[in-house]
Amino acid sequence: MWAQPPAAGVPSATSLKSSDVRDHYARFARWLSEQTGNSMERKRAEADLIFRRVGITFAVYGDDAGTERLIPFDVIPRIIPQAEWAMLERGLKQRVRALNMFLTDIYHEQRIVAAGIIPPEQVFMNAQYRPEMQGVDVPSNIYSHIAGIDVVRAGAGEYYVLEDNLRVPSGVSYMLENRKMMMRLFPDLFSRHRVAPVAHYPDVLLENLRTVSPRGIDDPTVVLLTPGMYNSAYFEHAFLAQQMGIELVEGRDLFVDGEYLYMRTTRGPQRVDVIYRRIDDDFLDPLVFRTDSQLGVPGLLNVYRAGNVTLANAIGTGVADDKSVYPFVPDMIRFYLQEEPVINNVPTWQCRKPAELSHVLANLKDLVVKEVHGAGGYGMLIGPAATKAEIEDFRAKVLAHPAGYIAQPTLSLSACPTYVESGIAPRHIDLRPFVLSGRDIQIVPGGLTRVALREGSLVVNSSQGGGTKDTWVLEG
């Protein structure tokens, strides 16, 4: 965004020339140069205090420092010009459309496997593939109703998809709360910039969920199913349920009678038509998946198979966001849509292939290596930042189970000016827009920008010390 941070007014790590500011940041840069370091620090402290009061925290399992943490919020927004966003929106819609077609295909005709485009073992031996879903029809053939697609900007400014999150993607509450915070702290900025709104996301999400209710239901009952208050994303579950005006329920609040699902209420049982579920597949129905699960609803899969309830996202969706399937998404776009991808993948080596494994092992110090089932920034090696001992330890892990890893080059990720202890300095960022699939595919302009707060770090995950920013898409 900025090659270097601004020096005027606010203390900074380096100096800024006007040529370092991209055109769509110019107005914001002028405003920022008028601010003092003390005023910005006060605003940052105010944001932290408000977030703590509201309870915007996330749980860190096994963390000796405590179970709840505040995700650091940066007071400098990430700004995206309209033309850039239009390209991103087009590419994200294309990708999610192809991913939903892939899921429909593998649970029905399996044409892409028969065509030899994806090896059968990549699908049917995948831990996220659910044979129980084979032949099950879902409303409108939509499996991923809510997708969080992680994108990065690198090199000469080109965008790449880093990861597809199609199971229970989180983070949208931070997108909404970050915007509310910026409008509270800096209302004058929004009179200077035409920033596309995001506050209507809960309304769009609810309408999206209502459009995929079982056939014949005119006024569907929608609920949000949470694992409970000890889940790391519980704040988001409660927040979204409240914003949509729907019931937040746990498994014990629901029961199956015949081929229908009901919610216990003070007025007696009420039929449930759509579940926005924030529980992993394994815990949804103890009669089918994990028998020790106390989080799900016994018999839920029977209701689902009968077409009497919609699950968003569908059971078995995870096979499409597994990192071992990620390299094939551009081929999915070509196969199902007869189009070239608008947004490319990051170049990826699959360690299950002997030739690509040899390349990865010979270049570990220069690559990012990831577990195919890993998440949250765990189970990965960032070669340039790793010690020799860490590299050798990871080499042994890859050799022991090559199919469990992929590798990618260390991209020169774009950086955004970020307010840190030393003032304003560049920090690496990514972006997670949220793509909603229902009667139409819709994207609220923007998304969750995550920032690696440690100098030089490429890991943006909150569990690994990352923070978040408000994301502005300019209108005109």
TrEMBL record:
Residues 77-452 form the Circularly permuted ATP-grasp type domain. Pfam families: CP_ATPgrasp_2 (PF14403). This is Circularly permuted type 2 ATP-grasp protein. It comes from Piscinibacterium candidicorallinum.
